[in-house]
Amino acid sequence: xxxxxxTQSRCLTDNKFKFxxxxxxxxxxxxxxxxxxxxxxxxxxxxAAPEIIDKTFWLNTYNLCFNNLSDNSKYMEIFQDKVGxxxxxxxxxLK
Length: 95
Prior knowledge:
There is one protein chain. The chain has one domain. The protein has five helices and no strands. The chain has helices at 3-13, 15-27, 35-47, 50-67, 73-89. Helix 1 (3-13) crosses helix 2 (15-27), helix 2 packs antiparallel against helix 3 (35-47) and helix 4 runs antiparallel to helix 5 (73-89). The protein starts with a helix and ends in a 6-residue tail after the last helix.
């Protein structure tokens, strides 16, 4: 089973996983240079243990947005919006 098929299958049954994948997909068009790193994060999300995925995802996504571009303002804007949206959809997970 391909990575793409696994991702699509899991998106159908896991809303939080789908949110993470969609967040990363939203970041891809902003910089072609970061697409391999974003793909790596998507792979991490697919394989990470449920008990660590929330912290791991947000920490790695923040580091990606903050550290890898000289002008990261659009990345950080999307990141902040997504954190706020996540807190509304999945209350109590992030503090």
